[in-house]
């Protein structure tokens, strides 16, 4: 398995930066999985200077961003010239106030991951969670340091879907009802929340108790309301099924939620692909059984 890897300058600026926090937590798992990491220039240089992943054959250097490194990752997420130049997803540790995170190649990297159903990982928490996900599916013993990402009974989950993805969200919730119901609380924006409540009631959830707490619809500020919960560390995981093919009238609100997630990079996990969401649910079931 191969992933693109990039981190904004803030995230490799010192010994305790986000890139190094992730690597210290996950380097054993990266080696166990034989994970290929195709790192853009400065990110690769920072890893090498820190002496991390030394001798790991899967670490590959790409050009600096200004020389097209991130653009090459986008092309390889789409897939070019056979399997050796096809990436299975991307880890891009985003500094929400770094303007390079909204450059066309950065936006395209996420968009193409969503379109092709591949993981797009933008926070330390998401990166740690993803490594544990792949470890569990490889048959490895759970990493007890990753238990925090599976303490569902004490956490809050946000479920958000654009109009074209609401049916996909409902199908996901129906298939995953056992795991999603373990959360202490679930929140959603208006229409999605109502549909999820109706689903839960049809599954036997008490009719006098909402299965999800409903916020405003997205265009009326629901994304911003949930972003506030994320910033206050009162929402630990966001499952956000985006439709990358349509213009979004409330684009700024959606970006606000995405920026909130990256602001609390160590605490918030964000999943944007239904395929990755399904794999996470499978992981939760496998992990709970061990």
What does this structure look like?
The chain is of the alpha/beta class. The protein folds into 2 domains: 2-122, Rossmann fold; 146-288, Rossmann fold, CATH 3.40.50. The chain is built from 11 helices and 10 strands. The protein has helices at residues 18-33, 41-49, 69-78, 104-115, 124-137, 166-175, 177-180, 190-202, 222-231, 251-263, 274-288; strands at 2-7, 36-39, 59-61, 90-93, 120-121, 156-161, 185-188, 213-214, 237-241, 269-271. The strands form 2 sheets. Strands 3-2-1-4-5 form a 5-stranded parallel beta sheet, sandwiched between helices. A 5-stranded parallel beta sheet has the order 8-7-6-9-10, with helices on both faces. The longest helix has 16 residues, at 18-33.
How does the SSE layout of this entry go?
Blueprint: E1 2-7, H1 18-33, E2 36-39, H2 41-49, E3 59-61, H3 69-78, E4 90-93, H4 104-115, E5 120-121, H5 124-137, E6 156-161, H6 166-175, H7 177-180, E7 185-188, H8 190-202, E8 213-214, H9 222-231, E9 237-241, H10 251-263, E10 269-271, H11 274-288
Parallel strand pairs: 1-2, 1-4, 2-3, 4-5, 6-7, 6-9, 7-8, 9-10
């Amino acid at each position: 398995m191969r992933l693109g890897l990039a981190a904004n300058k803030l995230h490799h600026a010192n010994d305790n930066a986000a890139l190094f926090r992730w690597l210290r937590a996950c380097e054993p798992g990266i080696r166990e999985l034989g994970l290929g990491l195709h790192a853009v220039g400065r990110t690769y240089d920072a890893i090498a200077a820190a002496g991390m992943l030394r001798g790991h054959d899967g670490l590959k250097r790409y050009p600096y961003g200004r020389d097209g490194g991130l653009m090459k990752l986008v092309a390889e997420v789409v897939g070019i010239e056979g399997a050796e130049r096809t990436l299975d997803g991307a880890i891009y540790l985003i500094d929400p106030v770094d303007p390079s995170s909204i450059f066309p190649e950065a936006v395209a990297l996420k968009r193409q991951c969503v379109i092709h159903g591949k993981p797009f990982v933008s926070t330390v928490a998401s990166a740690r969670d993803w490594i544990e996900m792949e470890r569990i599916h490889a048959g490895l013993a759970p990493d007890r340091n990753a238990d925090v990402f599976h303490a569902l009974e004490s956490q809050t989950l946000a479920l958000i879907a654009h109009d074209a993805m609401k049916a996909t969200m409902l199908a996901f919730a129906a298939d995953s009802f056992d795991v999603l119901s373990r959360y202490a609380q679930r929140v959603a924006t208006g229409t999605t929340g109502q549909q999820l409540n109706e689903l839960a009631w049809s599954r036997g959830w008490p009719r006098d108790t909402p299965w999800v707490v409903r916020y405003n619809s997205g265009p009326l500020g629901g994304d911003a309301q949930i972003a506030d919960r994320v910033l206050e560390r009162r929402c630990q995981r966001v499952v956000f099924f985006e439709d990358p093919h349509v213009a979004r009238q409330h684009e700024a609100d959606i970006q606000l939620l995405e920026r909130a997630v990256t602001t609390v990079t160590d605490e918030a996990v964000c999943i944007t692909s239904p395929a990755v969401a399904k794999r996470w649910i499978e992981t939760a079931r496998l992990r709970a059984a061990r």
